[in-house]
Amino acid sequence: MPTPHIEAKKEDIAKVVLMPGDPLRAKLIAEKYLEDYKLVNSVRNMLAYTGTYKGMRITVFASGMGNPSIGIYSYELYKFYDVEKIIRIGSCGANSEDIDLYSLILADKSYSRSAYDDILNGENVPYSESSMEMNQTILTTAKEINYDVLYGNISCTDVFYNELENPSRLYNDYGCLGTEMESFALFLNAKKLKKQAACLLTVSDNMITKEQTTSEERQNAFTDMIFLALESMLLQI
Q1: For residues 149 and 104, what is the distance between their CA atoms, to the nearest angstrom?
Q2: Which one is catalytic: 36, 118, 205, 224?
Q3: Digit-coded pLDDT (tens) for 88-115
Q4: pTM metric for this prediction
Q5: Is 205 an active-site residue?
């Protein structure tokens, strides 16, 4: 049953979805990690692939950038394709000089001033929450494979070039380890539709020290995050 944004048949989408922002990263993940994968969506070049990872059927579906974009795709996947779990994988900027580039961050709460909740639910909550069950699985898996993961709150902004926000304030007042642009809407959709969602991030730049990674460096460094997400999902089926 296609939607205005997804052309896939219902049976083409797995119950568990890995959701990077970049369509080309979705393609890379499918090519590198999945067996017997096939392209199941290309509407607006928002690429999605379904295949198997160690026998687990999984869909890798790009979300695009920002709350509105991931809001559309996650809502339709949950509501019309019976997806049960989505784990967002992406990049973030660190809000503390003590957080190194390439660190892995697992989001607990997502703080935001976005109007997404106001429009979706007629409310105005300051944060949305991830799935405790999924987070516990990711943390357990990280420990088993000896990956260091920072677990805490993150900030989710609608404005990438935001010169008015103070990263140190976000860190000190709200415990936001990093800032990204998609988790708030994802978590709200999951709660509204009684589904589950998690957000695993790689630090690509530091908002305090101004250290940055190149696009090529990010591409290579994201392998730890992708591997952890996939291994964790094996325990979610």
Answers
A1: 5
A2: 205
A3: 999 999 999 999 999 999 999 999 999 9
A4: 0.96
A5: yes
